[in-house]
Amino acid sequence: MIVEIGSLCLVLALVLSLAQILLSVAGSDRPLLAGAGEGAATAVFLALCIVFGALIYAFVTSDFSVANVVANSHSAKPLLYRVAGAWGSHEGSMVLWCLALTGFGAAVGWFGRDLPADLRARTIAVQGCLGVLFLAYTVFASNPMVRLSEVPLEGRSLNPLLQDPALAFHPPLLYLGYVGFSVVFSLAVAALIGGRVDAAWARWVRPWTLAAWSLLTVGITLGSFWAYYELGWGGWWFWDPVENASFMPWLIGAALLHSAVVTEKRGALPGWTLFLALSAFTFSMLGAFLVRSGVLTSVHAFAVDPTRGMLLLAILGVTAGAAFALFAWRAPSLAPGGLFAPVSRESAIVLNNIVLTAATMTVLLGTLYPLIREAVDGNTVSVGPPFFNLTFTPVMLLGMAVLPFGPMLAWKRGDAIGAAQRLWVAALLAVGAGLLALALASPRKALASAGLAVGFWLVFGAAAEIVERVRLFRAPWPEVRRRLTGLPRGAWGSSLAHCGLGLFVLGACFETAWKIELAEVMAPNSRVALGKYELELKSSSVVDGPNFLAEEGVITVLKANRPVCEARPQRRFYPAGGQTTQEVAICARGLDQVYITLGERRAMADGRPGWLVRAYFNPWVQLIFLGPMLMALGGGVSLSDRRMRFGVGRKASAKAAAT
Amino acid sequence: MMRMALLVCALFCIAAASDPADRLPDPASEARARALFQEVRCLVCQNESIDDSDAELAADLRKVVREKIAGGMSDAQVRSFLVDRYGEFVLLKPTFSAANLILWLAPLAVILLGLGLLFARTRQARPAEALSPEEEARLAQLSQIRPD
Predict the structure, then answer these.
(1) What residues make up the domain containing A575?
(2) pLDDT in tens, A308-352
């Protein structure tokens, strides 16, 4: 019964979305109808909540009369993973996508009191159009509520590797990020229809972009962390098409974050900000298509279905095509905005945008190039990590080398010498740290040391930004304290995010260049060296898990002959699916990790039994995950800035009118 | 269903390349082999290098690469041997050839284009400052009218 209610609500949501479009279009100059359109948007969202609830209910109760539950669940799964199973399939993930899409549409109505009435009505109408397309796709081509005539006794999916908290929360966060850009897209289309793109519009784009981008950051990081500790070979980024699909909207979102500031503060670059606003969600849709269509071979092949892939491509083509056609038609009439000198905050941000655009193009071309070559001359080529490391990395390093100058420059006309004077300490410290790495780290690696210097440059540059803003060392202490407490959250947010980027660079350089790999067949009570650590295999035993059998090694990690931690890696066998998996044991020491997996049992040279132990010493690897989390935190802090809060403008103007 | 392919692979590919039983005796040659592994695609896998994959074909390819290196071939020779045998598809780093020129040069082109546009934008004259000839004429006309 509950599943039927869900099914009904899905169709209801589609119909209500049509009402949302019609009412909002008619309501762009009639407040009453616009209000009804907002009501419809909220109703669509509530209907989707019921659909999603019904789907989760079917998974939790293991209702195997529903085809989607049979294919993606099993009654022996723990509760959390039965719930997560609801969005683990093609159909379920589209429901989650629609839930986020309609939720954001309703949110424009709730929080958008400040927006000019016609812009708000049009934004909700455009959001409704996106809703209709994706809901129609879900209802007609990807319906998760379909019942089976013959009910099986048990579900088919009990994948042990997927039963992991990081992976349960990774898709919802990723989708909130992907789909968060839909609001930005709708705002851009609405502004193009209305023909007014000004500071007020950019002010509106910023909080939505920040929210979407921060959520996307957390989603991508969780996915990367899962791959790192669950797949057992210590890698955290594979330049796989599916990873790239999530990375492109992130890069464009980061560019948009910055260019929207220019449009808000200086009224400049409105066309470019609009273009990025349209591109971010276009890349989100491209990602949805790439992941689900199977057009590219990926290790992440996610619910691949070429027929439905064509439908998603059609949705992408129609939406992006219409939006960019509108852009091409209306953009030339936009005012170009204020002028700025070659050395200015505006130029620095444009430089940031150039770098991020070039990086996105590199990822896009690298991802799609095998398809392009095959279409052009029929040859199949591969584009893998070595390509991206050689192209993407230098482009980004170029941007990072100039990044700390940006916040030090004034709007319109900056003072390059002044900025250099404020940054020389940071530069000196960064170069010193790089030289130190060159002298001390073994083996000696010049490029990686330079990379570390760039990482330190970002971290110290971010600190210098705060120092400069509060006039530390230059003004008397009471003034510094007054400035420190009065510093807007946006300033803290940008410094935190830039610092997070620096930490990530440090972690990535250190881990990539100086990780130590070990693979040895070890007899019980024997020792092997792993960098400055030693591993001793104490014993191994058979462990009887709830739905698996495991061989567990007890390995003591020693440093200077003193045990620092005990690792228990497992090699698990799941009889239900006949799968063998490895449970990695991680021994974290400060920012470093010793990463240990237990392999198969093998005879030693002298005939005694031994175990193949693989281990990595990953220096500073924690920064790879902490850095992006700090970036997301920076986004959140910026979002909490009172200037970003919805309705501030209205309250301020009301106050001004009162006095 | 989710990420099935990834999983199937993940179950078998646990840094297979480092297996102590297969290593070359000379550490320098082994390091060269490992570096090459990362550039060679496991042809039957979804999207992995033979360094990551534990598929049978990947093991065979590793053996071939190690043999060629032990036989004294240079890295370039090993690569061209693999391309002759399996086609360009086997290389994860596309060759820097005419057909792949767009791929390799696109990032640079975008940056140069962007810098060019930025340069042009910052040198733009303020349109409001200069008057068009028509406006000049109109101004002259207006300034002749005196309110007497």
Answers:
(1) 516-618
(2) 888 999 999 999 999 999 999 998 888 777 788 889 999 999 999
In this structure, of A87-96, A353-362, A641-650, the range with the lowest mean pLDDT score is A641-650
Given CB atoms, is B44 within the 8 Å cutoff of chain A?
Answer: no
Residue B86 shares a structural domain with residue B119: no
CB contacts under 8 A, A 393-452 vs B, are 395, 398
Specify whether B20 is located in the same domain as B89. yes
Cβ–Cβ < 8 Å for A118, A194 = yes
Given CB atoms, is A80 within the 8 Å cutoff of chain B? no
Residue A659: what pLDDT?
44
| B55-99 pLDDT per residue, tens | 888 889 999 999 999 999 999 999 999 999 999 899 999 988 888
Looking at beta carbons, which residues of chain A come within 8 Å of B11?
161, 579-581
Question: Are A352 and A403 in contact, with CB atoms under 8 Å apart?
Answer: yes
Per the CB < 8 A criterion, the answer to whether A366 and A382 are in contact is no
Contact status of B105 with chain A (Cβ, < 8 Å): no
Closest chain A residue by Cα to residue B38: A386
Quick one: average pLDDT of A376-389?
A: 90
Residue B114 and residue B51 share a domain: no
Instruction: Choose between A77 and A123: higher pLDDT.
Output: A123
* Cβ separation A382–B4 shorter than 8 A: no
Using 50, 70 and 90 to split pLDDT, how confident is the model at A582? Answer: confident
B45 at A interface, C-beta within 8 A: yes
Which B positions 83-102 lie with beta carbon below 8 A of chain A? 87-94, 99-100, 102
Average pLDDT of the residues in A140-157: 88
| Residue-level pLDDT at B146 | 58
What's the total number of domains in chain A?
A: 3
pLDDT tens column, A50-67: 999 999 999 999 999 999
Q: Is the pLDDT of residue B3 over 50?
A: no
If asked whether residues A27 and A144 sit together in one domain, one would say yes
ipTM of the complex: 0.84
Are A149 and A40 in a shared domain? yes
Examine the domain organization and report whether A421 and A535 are in the same domain: no
Flag whether A229 is in a domain.
Answer: no
Q: Give the closest-approach CA distance of B68 to chain A in angstroms.
A: 21
Cβ distance of B46 and A301 shorter than 8 Å? yes
Residues B53 and B123 in one domain: no
CA of A340 to nearest chain B CA: how many angstroms apart?
6
Find the domain containing B126 and state its range. Answer: 99-144
Specify if A564 maps to a domain.
yes
* Beta-carbon count within 10 A of B105 CB: 13
Burial class (CB in 10 A: 0-12, 13-18, 19+), A26: middle
| Residues of chain B contacting A520 with CB distance shorter than 8 Å | 20
Q: Does B142 lie at the interface with A, CB-CB under 8 angstroms?
A: no
CB distance A537 to A523 below 8 Å: yes
**Which candidate, B55, B48, B53, B44, places its Cα nearest to that of B17?**
B53
8 Å CB contact between A162 and A81: yes
Please answer whether residues A290 and A306 qualify as being in contact, where contact means their C-beta atoms are separated by less than 8 angstroms: no
Prior bond to A443 cis, omega within 30? yes
B28 shares a domain with B88: yes
Q: Count the domains in chain B.
A: 2
A358/B107 CB distance under 8 A? yes
